[in-house]
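ok so i was messing around last nite and threw this chain in just to see what happens. nothing serious, just curious
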Amino acid sequence: MAVGIFDSGLGGLTVLDAVAKRLPDVPLVYMGDSAHAPYGVRTPDDIYNLTISATQRLFDEGCDLVILACNTASAAALRRMQESWVPQGKRVLGVFVPMIEALTERQWGDNSPPREVAAKHVALFATPATVASRAFQRELAFRAVGVDVEAQACGGVVDAIEDGDLILADALVRSHVDALMRKMPQPDAAILGCTHYPLMEAEFQAALGPDVKVFSQANLVAESLADYLARRPEMVGPGLESAFLTTGDPDKVSARATQFLRRQITFTAA
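result:
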């Protein structure tokens, strides 16, 4: 009855932690492709091929449903995977949907015409590949009108987090927020469009100021998954054991993961 969670590195652990708290009885298999992180500077074809490989590994572990807890993979690979690759009886879901549902206050299946929403000026912080894809803006435009989105490619932040250099990550966050606010001085809301970024949520909020509502993905994804499985219980796969898999150095990745989640996490080689 396992569900798979995939990320290019460690950022998806923020999603896994939220899902584990929301669905404590569901075994979770986490796959981190740390050997090829970060994805945010790779080409769309490269991201697609790496994401397929990792997703297949999770299918092999007994997961019928895989969450792409990676905005870059969701932006660059998910639609192509769903249209031409995902095997019958399997599902692959991304992390954009819960975020856009929260921002627009409407369910994904609501196909009524786009309407105005509370947030008029939205700051999007994401990896270069996610920003270049314009996937967030495209999906938002189907559901909302009159929303100005200013995107900031946050180069270096994922690398700093993966390396455990949170001082550098803090400095980069402040630099990227400053750059965005020169273009959009008064955002109503900010989207942390990378699952690594919740680890720096307090730093983003401090740099943006208390009047900006910050949307972070982990809890939104967990609630969305709980609702999905309540409607589609057959998508809980046959796997019975939780596991943490990595393409990187298991000892190094385990140490970083333990530091991030503040509990012992032990990865094995994928």
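not much to say yet. The mean pLDDT is 92.
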